[in-house]
Amino acid sequence: MTMMSDIEEATRLTRAGRLAEATALLRRALSGAAEPQPAATATKPAPPRGRIFDVPPEAMDAIADPMRTLRDRMRPHTPPPVADGARFLSLSCRIAADSRDFRLYIPARKPAAPAPLLVMLHGCTQSPEDFAAGTRMNEWAEERGMLVAYPAQTQGANAQRCWNWFDAAQQRRSGTETALIAAIARQVMRDQAVDPRRVYVAGLSAGGAAAAILGQAYPDIFAAVGVHSGLPAGAARDIPSAFAAMRQGGAAPAAKRLVPTIVFHADKDATVHPRNGDAVLAQQEAATTGLSLSEERGQAPGGHAFTRRQQRDASGRPVLEQWVVHGGGHAWSGGDAAGSYTDPRGPDASRAMLDFFDQHRLNR
């Protein structure tokens, strides 16, 4: 079957009320696995041709994200814009016997002082270029006078190009991937005019989970963290526990120290359970006391409603921030359709994260 025929068949199965089969088909297509032949005794007769079942909306939610993923994989993605005079460099970083390529955006607008640096970690199947286009972070770099580094996961390290957040070996400072991403930040800090007090990390999905790990492992590098549709550090120790955490959410070890963190998660995310967004915040809350909570509700123009919660320290500065996007799925909120896994109808996660990061600096 082609991807298009997978989508068409999944749609037919859904309309026929065969939701489990539709979901299984889409997930097999996403993993590249061959479709198994059903046992004759387990095969149910197909409903009469043309018969349509009334499928409840909550049932459709179960396959919405897999269908979006298939569509994203099929269509070509537009390269991210590069402003006149800006540079979007292709670079590499090596430590010991391993290395990772990365893209570095240097804006045309040169700040008068050393610039902030944001490290952006893509999700599974994505590339730095795709992620840059979908988040529009290069455009924000021009507006705010910052540098953005986009590390690239390799298929050799993970067949789907996911960051290996679920590998216990990668959840500490000495983990190869963790150390490589930190080394990329250090390399850019060494070679460019970067303010070492204003280095941040953010990511989507597996990249969001990796960002949470980096915030815990390298609090001496990263002043704040952004986790979009991700999971808390230590949420899983292997592949089975990773799938369990993604499906159900769950607790994670308490943070040893508070790292300022902003979280975006949609409440209809069928890939990474929304409880994981709560768990990212709970992990940080366990490392501090005395924060004051405020909450506001709003709606993106012509799009999704949202709830925004901020927890402020005694000085009034938000150190924890959570955006719950109502009705959204597993996608970068407010992103550009030029990239994959984006939801243009949500509040702008890129803007919100940069506003949050701008309030935090390392004490050096």
TrEMBL record:
Bias kind Low complexity: ranges: 30-44
InterPro entries xref list: AB_hydrolase_fold (IPR029058), Esterase_phb (IPR010126), Plant_Biomass_Hydrol_Est (IPR050955)
Keyword Ribosomal protein: no
Domain of life: Bacteria
Annotated keywords: Hydrolase, Signal
GO-annotated cellular components: extracellular region
GO molecular function: hydrolase activity
SUPFAM superfamilies linked: alpha/beta-Hydrolases
Residue ranges, annotated region (Disordered): 30-54, 292-316
PANTHER family: BLL1128 PROTEIN, UNNAMED PRODUCT-RELATED
Protein name stated in the entry: PHB depolymerase family esterase
